[in-house]
Design the sequence.
């Protein structure tokens, strides 16, 4: 009987964090403000500036 109670208690303890967890959000909440320039420091484009949107 104690084994069954122990298993039940373990199941409840493992479920508690999942019940009160907030929704996960990935990445930034705000977007960048338009295009930005990147200066290449390696490779074929070394020294050139590239514009990313």
Sequence:
């Amino acid at each position: 009987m104690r084994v069954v109670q122990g298993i039940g208690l373990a199941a409840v303890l493992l479920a508690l964090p999942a019940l009160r967890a907030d929704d996960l959000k990935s990445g930034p909440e705000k977007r960048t403000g338009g295009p930005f320039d990147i200066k290449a420091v390696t490779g074929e484009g070394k020294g050139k500036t590239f514009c990313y949107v």
Remarks:
- The mean pLDDT is 80.
- The radius of gyration is 26 Å.
- The longest helix spans residues 2-19.
